[in-house]
Each structure stands twice: as C-alpha cells, then as structure tokens.
Specification:
mainly beta, Immunoglobulin-like, 3 domains, 5-stranded mixed sheet, 4-stranded antiparallel sheet, 2 helices
Length: about 375
Amino acid sequence: MGGSGAVGNCVIRVFLLLCVSGARAIVAASEEPLKLLISVEQTQITAPFPARATLHFHNASKQALWLYRRVRSQAKEGSTVEVRLEALDARQEIVAPAHGRALESAGLPRPKLVRLESEGDTTEKVTLKVFPTRVGTEGEGTPVWGRYRLSLVYRARFSNAAEIGRETGVLLWQGEAISNNAEIELKPPAGEGSVAGSVLNAQGRPLSNVIVSLSDQDERLVDQTLTDSEGRFSFTPLPLGLWWVTVRRPDFTEDTAVFRSVRLTAAEPAGSIEFVLYPPEIYEPRGILHKPVILLVTDGLDNPLEKVSYESVWSSGKVLDAVKGEVGRKGLATFEVIPGRNFVTLKRSGCAKAEHRMDVSPGEGAEGFKLALDCSRK
C-alpha cells in the first residue's frame, strides 16, 4: 500500500485526524453526521488500470444510521460517488479537466442496507476509473501524467426516506459527505495490446449500451465501457496476458452476465471476442435482482418485539425465494427480497403465528415495513 495507505491506518473515531508518517494533519469541520475518509490501495496508477479506494465511514451522530451499499456514479435512488481529480503539475492550457467515475459491478448487483451505530465505523471498497487532464491548443489535447489530488463526494437520496422513517423509526441516511484529499500519481500506459469485440442479440442484431467489463487474470475489475450503436466495444492499450471480459445488460432485473477470456501474446497482441446475449433463463433466486428492506415487528400497539423469527417467501412459479432470520434489537431486521408480492410468516414463543403480505415495488432504493404479531393469545 502506498503513502495514502498510512491514512487508512489512522483511527477514525474522531474527525480530527493526525497521521505522523509524513502526512499532514487532516481537519474536517463539517456538521454532517456521516464523516468520510478515503485511502487508496496504490498511489501510482498506470493507465488503463483503475484507482482502488476504500471509503471509511464514521457515524458522528447520537443515533444509528442506515447506509445503502451499492455506490454508483449516477443513480436516482440510493448512494452515489462523485470523483474529484485535480492535476498538480499541469502548466499549459487545459483542453479537458481530469475526471473519474465509479465502475459498476461486472455481474448482477447485490445491494443491501448496513446499520451504522452511533460512533461506529464501516468501510466500502470502490473501483474508480480516472482520466488525466488534457492540455494543448486544439483537438483532444495531450494527457498530463504526474501527480493528482483525489477526493470523493458521497451522496445518498431516497424519495421514500420519510415514509420508511414513519413505518420503521429508522434513519436512512441522506445527504452529502466530502472526503479528505489523497495524492496519487497517474502514469502512461506501458502495454500495446487490445481487446475488442461486439455484442449481439439472439437474432444477430447489435446491442447498444451493454455494460462491458474488463478484469485481469485475478478477476479484479480493471476497466468498463458501454457498447456503441453498432454493439462494439474496445479496450486499449493493454499489457500482454490473460484478460476476462464480462457483458451485462444494465436494464434487466435478471442476470444476463456472460463472460469469456482472451490471452494477449507478443505474437497475437490484439484479441477479439463476439458475445451473443440470449433471453435469460433463471431458475435460482440469486439470478434475480433483489431489493433491501427494513422490517419492524411490533405487538400491534407500536411496541417493538424482539426474538421474532421471520420467513419471507416469493415465488414466480418457476423460481422460489425464501429468506429466513430473526429480528434484532428494537424489533428490527434488514434483508434483501425480490420485488413483488412477498409473504411473510412471523413466529415467536408464546405468540400466535402471523401471516402478512409485503408488496415490494420494483426499482432502485430501499423500502420499510411494519408488521404486527399478536402475543396476547396463542
């Protein structure tokens, strides 16, 4: 880990942080309850490899916060991250400023909610595609390789946050948290290889706006792009070696991910792959996009009940999804279900079993439900 990795080892219990090993004191005077500190895995990044960062969250408020775990560059619901990148060595006229974005998961996303206790900490890893500043007087300009200042802005928004709060009493965090600065060095590409191809549907027609992910031999995400109007994609320049390519349709709630490998050698430095995406045939629930929900179980008089076991069942006739667990403190539980009609069974020793229907709407974000269990009779 590079110099900024030392920052990640500092204690995040307060937001006045002092790292002695050559780093400056970091002072953040923000009134936001959620504090954000970032550290990067490597400070020297050779194109086209990404920056791999860890988001360190600290809850400075007096109550628990719930965070949505699926950071994206753009989303109407849920959490997003904005990449801020500033060149420290650019001296010429800037044609295009440095910028970056968070990469999507190569496969079907697995969103969830995480409870962050008061004065508690949690982390999340993100992969960031970064683009250097370009300078010059015409055209696309020349990339500026060298030192950059990296920071992130973490945001979350939920159109139904107030409704979830009324139903469950939890605070689904919304707002904006700005990170510290981390210094990185961007270096020019050393490889001369390339991977290109196309994505077609079952009828042989090109598919546009398909997410194409490039991963290294250890299956770590390296780069990402969208297919153009002709269904084409390309990654270049790349070092020689084994590469994995995954394609996935982002507009599908079923898993459409298909992956193949290609090896670039000195004799064949240019690899080519053609993908054909057929309509998905899903037989397991893990192949369908789930949505996080918060469940509050009460005695019917708004008094939370603990030690209640629950089982949520969803069925399409072909796929059966059953989620089991037990509510925790204050009668709360969080889990992920397939959107649609879910049937929930509640059980507790000394109480009559209760059956409820839980209608989970499609789309991004999260939902909350309050269900009752009558313990006055068995």
